[in-house]
Amino acid sequence: MTSLLATPIVRPPIVSVAVPLANGTASESVFADALLRSAHLTRADIAGLVKSFSITAVSELGDKTFLISAILATRHSLMLVFWGSWLAMICMSTLSSLMGAILPALLSHQHALFLSGMLFLGFGGLMLWQGMHMSGDEISEEWKEAQEEIRVDEEEHELDALEAGMPDEARSTLQRASTALHSAPRTSMITFLRQGIRNLFDLCVSPVFSQAFLLSFLGEWGDKSQITTMALATTHRVTVVAIGTSLAHLLCIVIAVTIAAST
């Protein structure tokens, strides 16, 4: 009995067996994480990029700025209209993202999340309702409104005369506009900035470029896509939201210009 108790018990070695997951899920996840780290992104950034792109693209297709780009592209150079419209959307997306990033500093994190969620639900329901109830007459009215806005803008700035190759008349027009602007006692700051930007683009780039830029930028101000961009920036990185919305606007402008080119 004593000899049996003194005999050491030899345990078999434990062999670890790696059981591969189905379809290489683990390896794919590790590769995706490594790829995101190399790009300095996280999964939350990808989610924000997808959200900002998809929501903006859906809300902007057929919107007033979309129609403005399409109408201008039927009358003027496609490239000038494209770059003017997209640069305006890049500026607006960046500005809206920065404005949204300020909200968490003014509100608590929970309130910012609640506000963001309510805005998504509200605008999502609004877009769904508009898609279900919008008739052909409403679309035609939106088209006429965009055309009227372009017509008024061209009359105010005498775009046709500037593009007809009359530099003397163009310079006198700009001088008269500048004189009237400074002599008006109640001219608002927005009008002053708008005219200054318009004159700068007219002289440095092209009247068509400046028209596409200003009409797109002002048409987007206060739009539902600007509000959703601000809401997204409260919960995601500013750069991610700005890039996502800018790419969505790029897609919409390309579609608008392509439709105009085919007509």
UniProtKB/TrEMBL annotation:
GO terms for molecular function: calcium ion transmembrane transporter activity; manganese ion transmembrane transporter activity. It is found in: Membrane. GO terms for cellular component: fungal-type vacuole membrane; Golgi apparatus. One of its GO terms (biological process) is Golgi calcium ion transport. InterPro entries: GDT1-like (IPR001727). The chain crosses the membrane at residues 80-106, 112-129, 238-261. Its main location: membrane. It holds the Pfam family GDT1. It is a multi-pass membrane protein. Keywords: Membrane, Transmembrane, Transmembrane helix. Belongs to the GDT1 family. This is GDT1 family protein.
